[in-house]
Amino acid sequence: MPCGHAHHQKGYAELNFAAQPKWIKSITSGRLDQFSGGYFSSINLSSAQVKHRTDDPKNVKLEVWSAPGRTKPEFAEAIKQEFRPAKKGESFGPSLTLNVPKAWANEERIQFEFDPGCEAMIWTKDGLPVQGITGGNDGDRRVDYILDAKARSSEHLFYIESSCNGMFGINGINPPDDNRSYGLASADIVVPNMSAVALLRDFQTLKEIRTHITAEVHLSHHAQWVANEIMNVWQKGGGASGLLGNEELLKLVEECRKVGEEIFGQGWREQKEKVYEGKEVQVWGIGHCHIDTAWLWPYSVTQQKVARSWSTQVDLMERYPEYRFVASSAQQYKWLEELYPPLFEKVKAKIKSGQFHTIGGQWLESDVNMPSGEALCRQFLYGQRYFESRFGIRSVTSWLPDSFGYTGSLPQILRLSGMKYFFTQKLSWNNINRFPHSTFNWVGIDGSQVLVHMTPVDTYTAQATVEDVRKGITGHKNLEVTNQSLLVFGNGDGGGGPLEAMVENLRRIRAVANKYREIPIVKMGNTVEEFFETVEAQTNEGKNLPNWHGEMYFEFHRGTYTSHGSIKRGNRKSEILLHDIEYVATLASLFGTKGAYTYPKDKIDPLWEDVLLNQFHDVLPGSAIGMVYDDAERIYAKVAKNGSQLLDEAVQALFKSSAPISPTAPFTHASTSKGKIIAINTLGKPRREVVEINVSGKGADVLKSQAVQISKSGEKGYVLVDVTDGVVGEVKGMFADLTPASAHKTPEGDYVLQNSNVKMTFSKGRIVSLYDIALKRELIPEGLTGGLIYFNDQPGYWDAWDVEVHHLEAPHPVAFEEFAITENGPIRAQLQTRVKIGKSTIDMSISLDATPGSLKADARSAFRFDARVDWHQRHEILKFEIPLDIHSPNANFEMQFGYVGRPTHRNTTWDIAKFEVPGHKWADLSEFGYGVALLTESKYGYSADGQYMRISFLRGSTSPDAEQDQGEHTFSWAVYPHVGSLGDADIPGVAREFNYPLHLRYIPDSSSLSSMTALTREVPFSVEGAPGVIIDTVKRGEDDKFDSHHTGATTIVVRLYEAYGGHATAKLRISSRVPVSKASITNILEDELTPLELSRAPSAGQGEDTILELPFRGFQIVTVKLTIDAGLLSRPSSESG
Ligand SMILES: [Zn+2]
Q1: Helix crossing, 601-614 with 373-391: angle to 10°?
Q2: Can you give the pTM of this predicted structure?
Q3: Please, what are the domains in the chain?
């Protein structure tokens, strides 16, 4: 007979009189929230986290010195200052002496908890940064500095450098608050109860499983049941009583943790990092720390953030052998190398041992919409060379998780920079369409491809939660061919990186996956490259992956092509100046007086590094605080000053005693009637232009005598420059084929600019007619007008970043007023006019020249607009618009090394999204036989909207910089009508001429030209047989040595690209004056890849030119390295040349 005492029985009982309800899941779920923190924190598991804590002055001696103003003294300087005693609640910059109580000596962990409310860094007394601190109570809080054995036993002195800024600057994305201060909340020695800490982590992982695995699966519900059971054990064992001794508490915690093994598996704790053993993997964890090189803080603060973040990561690596961390940006490594050498050595050691991974191969994570093609090449050339020189590593993975859209030129640039993989996630921020792929081949405009992973986790600052790991699979859009994804975790933007808790959580999640199939298998311990290699292998070398062709347009942050107009201008002007310096300096190093000139690579490199720095993805886009722009403007001013000097020195090396001629400044150089104006053309192709010069100075008579047209005031002169068969052009009189330009006012009060091929009419302040005279064709549609226009510009949260689609719904066309005819031919006609908008004034000249836009037979002339703007508008965007009677479904916009078509219609949501688009020097709307191009010289924002083409000029957002775009601006643009397609009309070439000025020089004696026939009669490098192939860059080879007694090779690098989008076979002609002994095709990194056959052809001068035959596909970039026989160079040998 059964006895009736069921609990004494083994096996399934026969009788059961207990109530035993099925639990109410939602209530139990709520109960789990009471086990840590919150209302019950004095009796729940939180109460057991710390064993001991003290801030007794006997144990913690705190002294402080505050650096004056915004200075950032170096460590050695700072510790020499006089420190005064301090205490909690005060402000900072302390030195600390700790005396750990003797009784605590054997504790598992002793840490110093320091919470200044802001960011800080702990330094050893010898000047080694060892740990970053993030104070405050946000998710990125990190206030514990673990004391090592030495620090426990004796008196331990160290320093803390506190910076009065938070992780996200001083006031989030609002302008900085100068009156913000921070208080010292904690400076305590703490002995944590590590078992209780671990239990809390167990418990939190269980809760995450229950919260985030929402499918009705056993694991999820069972995790809740186990977590609840842990609470029961805790409460039954007296955990909430507050009466347990240390031993008893430990025992109870251990009992609770045992319950957790139901989910984590038996023995998982002893496995430690070996929990990851086993081949199968789905989600690859990699620690990361996105440090914006400037954003809500200036560059100088970023330098500290790098040291703080990376020292913390080195510490984490030492405690977790499986831990891997990846960091991009050569610039950040270089700062560390220069400013924190001991820490740099520690990082270097971790790179060598394989836990710290470099990535990206780039100078920094730049914007990739706006930098020129050559600047992007330099981003990778300088980046890869830095990583290679310091660590012997080249990256194969491009890393741009946070840039605002990706040009279709990038795949080719990456392949040519030694990379084949690409990581991002930013397109998950699209505000209209969802990007359809996670893992795919990205095919650029030339056909080059890279393997892309856009993490399905949709972030580069994952917190390594169950939800993050799960999203790696549930968010993956290409599970049909691959089940691999990258989990990039760690606090970021302001730095910081992963916390210990994240690394611990991943171990737990993996332990669960080792027991249950309902959670993806996460792995730590590999490189990003190993992840990509696995994907490559799994997808039949990418052949099973879908392709995405062309640009990856970002459907967000469209204001960043326009915000901070002066920064955009600084970028474009600097890129062009550097081009010109390299071109002329290369020639000077070949043809200058022997021994008198050295190619100034050591001065050019720092200027490039400056330009690359300002291309950071929150600087050039205009989305940083005002302080960042103060720095950026200073940097551009330095580039302009030092660059102009370098250019002048190079020109002087070729034309001794020559002097620059300015369009604006009076010419004061002593001159004689024998003097002559010459023009240096850095584009290597013939051009003919009207150039404005100032003829007012005391030495200007000789200039005046060579001008074809002098303004009424007598201050301005216009010269006709013709550079047809050399780098150096001369000033000419009128040509027979010129079409004299004129301006007049009609009896109706309209103003007209015209020459014999085109005419523009202004009526009531708007452009009412653009007329092609030869074709008798009106280009402005009936009833529409062009001119300046502004729109209310009130986007959502991201003020500086976004111009939103609805801005187009409230247009304000404005009229040109106060017209005056300021020039009236024969070679330049010009109207002066003014526009007023609110408190802003726009003074503008509109010009038409007698010269056509190019030397092509049927070329028309461009209408040029030069604006000087005093801008005081806020939340308004200024544009130029022109409606055109040209019908095409697409308009084209120049990008790096090519162009991209965007729709003029709005058929689909993908078309609607492209209401504002990035472009470089030109945008073009063409139909069969005819088109109109817009040319710019410092603008990047455009739109094609039905019949309207627009350029965006200025905005006035107030966050994060309250003063964005306020003040003076100058910029120019042109309207260029043309016969035929953009290729027929050579729009890429015309836009280059609009951007690259001829450099006018005065030479005192034209006989000095005769010694320079290599430049006056010949172009050293030119292209034949392929009108679409452009010589973009000419420079000296990166590996040439330029010290005074070098014996190495003399090499020249020529970078060309096909600009029209079609196959071509180009002949690169190198003048006989440049004795080429060897030539090869290289990549961007200047590795010699394919030798080229040298063939010779009769020269226009003496000897034989070298001809290199180069096949191109559309938009292909080809880099050629020429080795020069320096002994055969004929140069002036004496100072008299
Ligand atoms: Zn960023």
Answers
A1: 110
A2: 0.95
A3: 45-192 (2.60.120), 197-263 (no CATH), 283-542 (3.20.110.10), 558-654 (1.20.1270.50), 656-733+998-1012 (no CATH), 742-997 (2.70.98.30), 1018-1136 (2.60.40)
